[in-house]
Design a protein that fits this description.
It contains four helices and no strands. It is mostly helical and 174 residues long. Keywords: Cell membrane, Electron transport, Heme, Iron, Membrane, Metal-binding, Transmembrane, Transmembrane helix, Transport.
C-alpha cells in the first residue's frame, strides 16, 4: 500500500524536532504567567520561549530545504476534498511554523526589547516602531490559536488514518 512508504529520515527527524520545539515554546509561554513580572523565573521562561521559537524557525528552514531536495511519498488515495484538506492543513502548518517565530522576532525588535535565544543577544537591524510592535505581538498571540487548531486537525487526521482507516499513514512519519 502506498501509505507504507516513508518520508526521508531527515524529514522525519525534522518533523519531530519541530514538534518538540513547538511544545517547549508553548509550555514556556503558558507557564510564564505563573511567575511575577520582573522575576528571574519569568525571564528564564521567556528566554526559553524565544529559544524554542527560533529553533522552530531554523528547523523549518532546514525542513523546507530537505522537502525540496527529497521526494515525498505519493499521497494516500482519497477523495478530492480530503486531498485538498490535507494540502491546505499542511500549507497552514508550514506558514504558521515560519510566520509565528518571525512575528515574535519582529514584535520584540520593533518594540526595542532584547532578543535573547540561548541567553545570547541577537541584534536585529530594525527601527523601533511601537505601533508595528503592538500589531506583530497581537498577530503572534492570536496566531497561537491557529497553531492549536491546525496542529489539532493534523494530529486528528493522522490518528483517524491510523486507527479508523487503518491505512498505516502515521507510520510514514515514524
Amino acid at each position: 500500500m502506498q501509505s507504507d512508504l516513508k518520508y526521508s529520515r531527515p524529514l522525519r527527524a525534522l518533523h519531530w524536532l519541530v514538534v518538540l520545539a513547538v511544545l517547549i515554546a508553548v509550555a514556556a509561554i503558558e507557564v510564564l504567567d505563573f511567575f511575577p513580572k520582573g522575576s528571574a523565573g519569568r525571564a528564564a521562561l521567556f528566554m526559553l520561549h524565544q529559544t524554542a521559537g527560533l529553533s522552530v524557525l531554523a528547523l523549518m528552514v532546514l525542513r523546507l530545504l530537505a522537502r525540496v531536495a527529497t521526494q515525498a511519498p505519493p499521497p494516500v488515495p482519497g477523495t478530492p476534498l480530503i486531498q485538498l484538506a490535507a494540502r491546505l492543513t499542511h500549507g497552514a502548518l508550514y506558514a504558521l511554523m515560519v510566520g509565528m517565530p518571525l512575528l515574535g522576532l519582529l514584535a520584540l525588535a520593533w518594540g526595542g526589547k532584547p532578543i535573547q535565544p540561548f541567553g545570547l543577544d541577537l541584534p536585529l537591524a530594525v527601527a523601533q516602531d511601537k505601533t508595528l510592535a503592538h500589531l506583530a505581538k497581537e498577530v503572534h498571540e492570536s496566531g497561537a490559536t491557529l497553531v492549536y487548531i491546525a496542529v489539532g486537525l493534523h494530529a486528528a487526521a493522522a490518528l483517524w488514518h491510523e486507527f479508523i482507516l487503518k491505512d498505516r499513514l502515521l507510520r510514514r512519519m515514524i
